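hiii, so i know i said id send this last week but things got crazy w the move. better late than never?? heres the sequnce for the chain we talked about at the cafe, plus the structure i predicted for it. fair warning i was half asleep when i ran it
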Amino acid sequence: MPKTTIVPSVTRIALASFIGTAIEFYDFYIYGMAAALVIGPVFFPGGNPTTQALSAFLTFAVAFLTRPLGAALFGHFGDRIGRKTTLVASLLVMGISTTLIGVLPGYDAIGAWAPALLCLLRFGQGIGLGGEWGGAALLATENAPAGKRGWYGMFPQLGPPVGFLFATGSFLLLAYFLTEQEFKDWGWRLPFLASSILVMIGLYVRLAIAETPVFTNLLKQRQRVVFPLKEIAKYHRTPLMLGALAMVVCYALFYISTVFSLSYGTTTLHIPRQQFLGMLSVAVLFMAAATPLSAWAGDRFGRRPVLLVAGSAAFLSGFALQPMLESGSPLLITAFLSLELFLMGATFAPMGALLPELFPPALRYTGAGTAYNLGGILGASFAPYIAQRLVTEGGLSWVGGYVSLAAAISLLAVYLMRETRDNPWV
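okay and structure toks below
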């Protein structure tokens, strides 16, 4: 009697691909917020607050520099032994690293060991998140019916705005229920410790999902590659670099409008921390709204047209940064943050399908994940640090120019690409 093939439901696929990215991006975002608010004074010697802020932003960059390594490592096993097993491992690495940051003593307690161990744990966060996104995108798109890869690829793309909303909400609650001194002494650690609970939930969901049909087919046909990264470096360098450059604008939009703006708004503009976090909570809803709209449009009109339109709007938005952010008006600043995060969602959503479509099945986990995380180095790793230096040296107009430059880089990369919507899939 022939075996019945069980096709996983849309809900199960959506939840399994979404929940891991939501948790892992929650972990990543709480560090970004802590870096903007408290990491400098806790983990670096006393002195100039600007120097402490720059040091904190450098530790923020560490994880982005290691994410391509995580993509290559987990991508190798994702293309060799399967998407599901690798996704479970990446979630564990990220969760353990985040939880340990929550219990790490500060500089006053252990001296220079504090920033050194912090960088080590940021290294672990980068490795875990580097392996997460590529697998989550494949879990969604490799289960998608024909003509729906953009829509299914949206599920992991919804993880970042939800993770950010949880991260912002946790810091917002702390701002309301703790004094400033309590927050600096111990309160900031609570969101990191809460990650352990979220990871257990994520593991439960991930372990319940089956392997993707595309990888199952690879196993049957014995088409796995021994060293996927070597094959990509040899035969797929152009799509790898174009995919990475296409991601630059997404990262720049997000981290300039969240981490840098949070730091600038609370320190230079003297907007209360809880008020600015509330403004960001409103703005991230626009990112969440743009994600399904852009994903649907990517299936309807193609990935390139959507990215070219959204990238052009992002280029123009750089000119709005100085007048809107410098105004000091909470209403104008919230409008600017909402605009930037809407454009982030519009440029980010099609990537869930586009980056996997650039590579053949046997190299897809490694290729998509590596391109995604190389884009993180270029667009995000030093974005808050560079923005802090630019505003110090030349003012906010220079930061706006940085956003426009990032958009121009991604626009050129997308222009040089061929449309991927109809690329062979299996």
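btw The chain has one domain: 11-416. thought thatd interest u
miss u guys!!
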